[in-house]
Amino acid sequence: MSEKYLPIKIFEKRKVYDDRSTEGGGDSKEPSFVLHGAALQSHAKMLADDLVEVRSQLKEEIKKKRELPVIIATTLNDSAIAKTHRGRVVGMLSSDGHDNVIGVFGDRQILSVLSSETVLDNLEDTIQREEAAILTSSLNGIEVFHPIVEAYEEDHIEYRARLIDYNDFDQNNLARMRFESYCRDIGVQIKKKIRFTADLYIYRVTIDSLEKYRQFEDFEGLYSTEKTTPLSVSFDAVSDEMIVPTSYPEEGTDYQTVGVLDTGIAPIGHLSPWLLENEYTGYPEEYADRSHGTAVASIIEYSDDLNGTDICSTDGVNLFSALVYPNQDIYPEDLVLNIREAVERNPQIKIWNMSLGEKDECDLDSFSEFGMALDNIQDENNVLIVKSAGNCRILKETCQNRESASLRIRSERLLWARLLPRKKNLITLMPICHRLLHV
Fold it and tell me: What is the Cα–Cα distance from 236 to 296, expressed in whole angstroms?
């Protein structure tokens, strides 16, 4: 295949974090982290004490007559996160015949439903056996899971809550009904309920006192709660005094349509020939500032002309304007709602671009709720969302050195989604240059 059609470039930021060996199979050598003798006995005693505490807390939870199951968090040894070792732990946590594991927090904590004390009995028996040294050494601790709760601030009343995903339709449905009823009972107002994935709903709630907040965090199915504020998205761009000739669609030629999930596209001269008449907008025109969306559309349509390259495999694309972000800050839940609505209302469009970004750096150990929402929107609508990975002046300066063998990004503006799920149908791209057409 000609180099013209191979525009993929590799960008790296944190090589130092990619320091784990590739997981392999077939090696019978005992892992170096495995304990023996007195060290193993001491470690087993610590885990046994953890199980005693779990049993004690379980009895307290039973007294509360809770309707949702207790969740336990099993922490792995730093050196025992390979698939083989995780598999042993998952097998033990499901040793009562149920598929109890429901997820992972970070890359070291396995969350599982405590469906019966049989699992605790089996764990207790196993860690006492010398032949189970690998499994015992793999564990760093066992505890009842408690919600991840951000501290309450008296001058802030908007919070967002996420419930535990039990990987069970009935349990999840019960959790949502119980949660909404619980909020009414304690005087917490639910402002928004947004579906991020098939089983993940995010609630935005109003809590106006510390007393209510403490009651709120006691809900049995709560996964996390945190302060929420409107997004402050950065629209950074570098504009050059350059003019490129306007291109026009050839009559009788079919062009792919790209939906632009942004601030809307203005019908400027360079883009009008390609811009579809209909558009999606969730806001009146007085709430629109189409400059950023227009700049993004100009890169999509004129990237080769702007960058002085010849890598595009098409001579143009139709542009569909989706105004999902107004000229004022909005909550992330509302942005997800707008994106989902724009995609679902236009099933004929299969390729979407989203180049919004903020200043926060992505999390190294977890997928963001926003990333999961984008992935779910793709899966349910059979579309491809192309998500920008950054937009900074330093990258532009680096790109001016065309002979550079590798590009290392020192960007204050990384994935908006804070580490999107690495699904095969989710692509992240970094613009090579920031020359934009004038609006």
Answer: 11
For the chain, the average pLDDT equals: 79
Give residues with Cβ within 8 angstroms of 222, minimum separation 6: 147, 161, 162, 163, 164, 179, 216
Which tens digits make up the pLDDT trace of 78-121?
Answer: 776 666 767 888 888 888 888 889 988 776 889 999 878 898 99
Topology (CATH) of 149-227: Alpha-Beta Plaits (3.30.70)
Where are the domain boundaries for CATH 3.30.70.60 in the chain? Answer: 149-227
Q: What distance in Å separates the CA atoms of residue 110 and residue 74, rounded to the nearest whole number?
A: 5
DSSP symbols for 337-366: HHHHHHHHT-TT--EEEE--B-SSPPPSS-
Report the share of the chain in percent with pLDDT over 70.
Answer: 75
**156 band by pLDDT with thresholds 50, 70 and 90:** very high
pTM: 0.71
280-281, strands of its sheet edge to edge: 280-281, 318-323, 257-262, 351-354, 384-388, 426-429
CB 198 within 8 A of CB 241: no
Q: What CA–CA distance (Å, rounded) separates 374 from 426?
A: 9
pLDDT for 68:
92
- With bands split at pLDDT 50, 70 and 90, how would you rate the model's confidence at 408? very low
What tokens were used for 145?
Answer: 């899971």
pLDDT for 420 beyond 50: no
Alpha-carbon distance of 219 to 28, in angstroms, equals 46
| Res. 237: pLDDT tops 60 | no
Q: At what angle do helices 83-93 and 118-127 cross, to 10 degrees?
A: 130
Residue tagged 């004929």 (tokens) = 348
Assign 271 to helix, strand or coil: coil
Both tokens assigned to 352: 């979407």
